[in-house]
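Hi again,

Forgot to attach this to my earlier email, sorry! This is the prediction with aspartic acid bound. I've pasted everything inline since the attachment limit keeps bouncing my files.
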Amino acid sequence: MSDSWKVHKFGGSSVADAACMARVAAILEADPAPSLAVVLSAARGVTDALLNLIAAAERQEDVEQGLEAVRNRHVDMATELCDPHAASEFIHELDADCRDIASILHGVRLTRAASGKTRDLVAGFGEIWSTKLFARHLGGRGKRKAVQWVDAREIVQVAWNALGPSVQWESSRARAAGLRGHDHPATLVITGYIARDPKGLQTTLGRNGSDFSASIFADLLDATEICIWTDVDGVLSADPRRVPDATVIDSLSYHEAMELAYFGAKVIHPQTMAPAVEKRIPIWIRNTFAPDKPGTLICESPVSSHAVKGITSIERIALVNVEGAGMIGVPGTAERLFGALRDEGVSVILISQGSSEHSICFAVPEADSALTERTVRQAFDTELRQGQIQNVDLVSGCSILSVVGDGMAGTPGIAAAVFGALAGAGVNIRAIAQGSSERNISAVIDERQSTRALRAVHARFYLSPHTVSIGLIGPGTVGGVLLEQLASQRERLLRDFHLDLRVRGILTSKRMLLSDTSLTMSDWRATASSGQPADIVAFEEHIHAEHIPHTVILDCSASSTVADQYPRWLGKGIHIATPNKKANSGALDLYTRVVEARRAAGSHYLYEATVGAGLPIIVTLRDLRETGDEIKRIEGIFSGTLAYLFNVWDGTQPFSTVVRDAKAKGFTEPDPRDDLSGMDVARKLVILGREMGLQLELADVALEGLIPPALATCPPEEFMNRLGELDAPMLARLHSAQKSGRVLRYVAALDAASRKASVGLVELERSHPFANINLTDNIVQFVTSRYHQNPLVVQGPGAGPAVTAGGVFADLLRVCAYLGAKL
Ligand code: ADP
Ligand code: ASP
Ligand code: MG
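Structure tokens for the complex follow:
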């Protein structure tokens, strides 16, 4: 007698057609185990097709063609896989079955109703056909010993109850004894899905029940191993159709697998595990289409370093909240509630009760929502009328997201990470449940955010990269360099930090280029004159894609129209990193709305590059304030252009020559008045002032510009021609400084106590730090409570496309770190 059995189960996708069946046969032939029990599903789609025929008959629709199609599919497979004799034998049986089905369908059409039994009977033919056909094929190949077709209805007996099918082990085992009595190795080809009920009538094990069949037979045969073959490489860390980056889990405990299956991982049926767990039979999940891959091992004590194994979701859920002071401390309330639902056959998927007992919240399938609401209202009719229960509130369109892993028990911070990831992706949580086993954390969320949520949490646990959808506005000098920097670092960030930065759109004032994947500067150049007309709302909608957890807009424009959008973007959870000064130095009202929107939505708004390009000026100021230091005074040279002009100009040549020279070197704006007006410096001072907590407006800054009123509004070329008009007044200022041994510098200063803000030319001692900076350096000096005798100074190159773009890039990475990326 052969007493060592191994069970193989092939799902519908593995036996979908003749080529698939031949592949299955080859897999079995490669298995050295002498005795195999091979459980098969129906060919893909056949069970659905049969059930659809019943539904169509109930609607009195024509069913002949549909039945013919199912028949022909099997005829084709038989013709291809079996010798003519075996094929015609099979077709003969198939036709007899089809005649039976046709008469059943005829009856259903007349009565317009099918009983559960009728449905079970018809649905089960798929497995009968797939196995009969396959047994003939495998037998015909002649490599496996003693191939025998087994009708599971002759062996497995189940009784259906509220929890589903329950196996009658004693009678089933007695019937199975015959199977085990072989003296020689055998290969049993067994129908999945179907069984007999206690009256001996055909029943099923429920949808996807063939997995269950496999473990029932493993138990009955005392098998040493179960192998479930499907069309993916194993149990994945998430549904691959929702999370394309899902990875194969190498091993899972029975509990983990059960939990994943219960919460929606379709790859394995939750009940499957029960008999296997009981007998500690290891289960492998493997890919029929890639039999070389190892697959996933589900066993008693797997070895794995991951605390979180997988993330699943169940869709089409309704969340019910029963609320009322009358429930506090009243024993048996929950039992009454759930008892009533059980009596109505409603399955409650998740329960969460606050410790105050003031409310009970639970989730049911959306299809049961009307029944649920009615049942709860009836059960608490008196309490509702007397006001002890105020409300029965039902929200549909929800989804349950579950994070599963044995290692979560006793690992602090997992829940925080889950909820942090959800918050970071702007996902609203309606209810939370954590089983006392701590193997599962579940959150009820809005169904529309479910894919986004799955991806964010999946990425958070390093099961897949953090994907960030990026929109870049203004691919000009700074924006262009930033695009190049992003493209050059993309691979490294992905490889080293699992950070997937995707520039999915580029926008100028006139046109835009959108992509579902990722754009680079060369894509942008290549489409120099194409792309679509600019539409900032369409741009925003594309970038803020539902399925990508995080969105960041990099605004490299200097546009106030773009800045006007910030409150809306931040309010929607879009993060912003920008060198654009307009929002922070424009109307106080816009700034206030930006700050409020950011706070309310928890989004991130970073603008380090608005002052001193890549220099850490704003971050320093913020660190000082947040740690309780008091900023008394900020002073400095905030313009690289003006720094350069006064560093270089010693009066030996006209001031206009130095300006022209600087313009030629690219150190000034195209119209140097933008620098000489001092407006840019004033804006930076306002930005820092607001960062200090002062309600400062541009108008509050005493601004001394360097442009005479007569030249303020003329066209740029005329201004350049008349630049010499600046020379005499500037020289007078310089001489006055030089007389007392001093130098001229263009300085911005802000005093917190007096709120006095000024920007203009000042005379400084030669030893002053501001008199000793290099070329286009910026310098900022903070006088604070802590740094009062010797101020804190930040100094360095504060202008230029590369350092400015670098500053914005650093802000972008900071946002990613806030969102959970481990940089
Ligand atoms: P079969 O036909 O083999 O029974 P199913 O279609 O019932 O296969 O289940 C396999 C499918 O389950 C896979 O193709 C995959 O798309 C889906 N699936 C959902 N969640 C997961 C997961 N966590 N791991 C693996 N597959 C999953
Ligand atoms: N054929 C059945 C179904 O489609 C059982 C199975 O495939 O597991 O539900
Ligand atoms: Mg299945």
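The two ends are 61 Å apart (CA to CA). DSSP finds 30 helices and 31 strands in the chain.

That should be everything now.

G.
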